[in-house]
Backbone:
């Protein structure tokens, strides 16, 4: 079912309106600079000046969630635009922790989606990883559902890389069994020149 | 009264005369004797053995079930959409999407090899569907069609007149068939044991089908990232029997 252009436009507009964070990086005075930065609870951007080598032109953006973690019901969405010849690093201060709300009816479900729209000569590095939990508490792949999607599109919505990993406790197979004795899984994507 | 009965049974006969020959095509498509080269692929089983993930019949059973679940979550949407809309434009769109989705090079190459072989065979065998040959020729001329297996399997089923429920079940079946076959050649299980295992797992496969069928391709996801990683190591194996 193909959406019409108008439908897609409306969809995108409502997505931007609902965004918890928006960031734009442009070249100002020959340097990559954040020209627009907006965030609302529970998201916060921290943009320190002196990270990385002074010889490298790159903006470092740290995303924080108030409380240091995510609890059920949290919904965060960011839109980030990096202009030509600019470099931006988007990362977290520490690993993102997921907490189960006591007495919460909803099970621990984490859904993450990252969509990257690049042009032919863009460079992109993505690191996406997850650990099995807090081992001291006996957590080993003990959550209900985790879904992480990383899509990379070229111009004209051409799909370049579509990856979606779903770890869900099932009646037939559970996550720990599927992960065997591994406690961490990571994906590193390198694109460009 | 007699006329009505005669009409009903004539109608049923007419329906049967269309449906019954279809069974023969369906069975031929699922028969391992169809020369599509599926025997050259182990679905990561060979790499999993060498990575010491499988050392007992129970491990094999678990492995097969995990692969079937991943087939359901990742590939059934492509089979489903292709069966429902078996046209050139849909096929090419699905082929491009799957090419971007199969990020594991080993499984990507296995998919294109099997898909190409399947279309070549289907175009030659099912001559009552001339569009198969036409679509193949057009796509070979385009040059940037990858000929991935799952969409093509769906296209062929759709053009033959099979329902998407049948094509998705069939795709799970041929996956199960091929892994079990690879397991016997890797000496994990004997031929009789393999047949027993296949029948036992069939019930699980049906449950997987129920869970994952009739979804949109945008929902396609993988559920066994560990096995995907292990399969990707197949190219590094020093000695190997299979292509993937």
Residues:
């Amino acid at each position: 079912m193909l959406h019409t252009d108008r439908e897609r436009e409306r969809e995108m507009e409502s997505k931007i309106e609902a965004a918890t964070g928006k960031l734009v990086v442009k070249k100002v005075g020959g340097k990559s600079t954040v020209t627009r930065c907006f965030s609302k609870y529970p998201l916060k951007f921290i943009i320190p000046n002196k990270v990385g080598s002074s010889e490298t032109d790159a903006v470092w953006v740290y995303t924080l969630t108030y409380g240091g973690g995510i609890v059920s019901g949290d919904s965060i969405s960011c839109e980030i635009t990096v202009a030509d010849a600019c470099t931006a690093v988007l990362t977290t201060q520490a690993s993102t922790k997921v907490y189960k709300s006591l007495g919460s009816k909803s099970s621990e479900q984490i859904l993450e989606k990252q969509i990257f729209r690049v042009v032919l000569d863009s460079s992109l590095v993505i690191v996406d990883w997850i650990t099995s939990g807090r081992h001291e508490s006996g957590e080993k792949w003990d959550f209900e559902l985790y879904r992480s999607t990383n899509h990379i599109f070229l111009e004209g919505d051409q799909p370049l890389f579509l990856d979606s990993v779903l770890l869900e406790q099932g009646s037939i197979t559970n996550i720990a069994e599927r992960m065997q004795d591994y406690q961490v899984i990571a994906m590193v994507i390198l694109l460009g020149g | 009264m007699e006329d009505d009965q005669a009409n009903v049974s004539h109608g049923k006969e007419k329906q049967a005369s269309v449906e019954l020959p279809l069974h023969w095509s369906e069975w031929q498509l699922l028969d391992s004797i169809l020369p599509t080269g599926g025997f050259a692929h182990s679905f990561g089983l060979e790499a999993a053995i060498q990575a010491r993930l499988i050392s007992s019949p129970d491990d094999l059973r678990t492995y097969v079930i995990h692969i079937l679940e991943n087939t359901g979550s990742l590939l059934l949407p492509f089979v489903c959409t292709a069966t429902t809309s078996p046209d050139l434009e849909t096929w090419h769109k699905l082929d491009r999407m799957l090419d971007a989705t199969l990020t594991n090079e080993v499984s990507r190459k296995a998919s294109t090899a099997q898909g190409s072989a399947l279309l070549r065979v289907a175009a030659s065998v099912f001559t009552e569907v001339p569009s198969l040959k036409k679509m193949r020729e057009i796509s070979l001329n385009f040059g940037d069609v990858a000929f991935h297996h799952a969409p093509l399997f769906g296209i062929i089923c759709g053009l033959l007149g099979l329902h998407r429920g049948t094509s998705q079940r069939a795709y799970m079946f041929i996956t199960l068939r091929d892994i079990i076959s690879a397991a016997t050649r890797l000496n994990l299980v004997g031929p009789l044991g393999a047949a027993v295992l296949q029948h036992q797992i069939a019930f699980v496969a049906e449950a997987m089908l129920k869970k994952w069928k009739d979804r949109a391709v945008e929902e396609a996801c993988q559920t066994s990232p560990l096995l995907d990683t292990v399969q990707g190591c197949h190219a590094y194996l020093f000695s190997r029997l299979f292509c993937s």
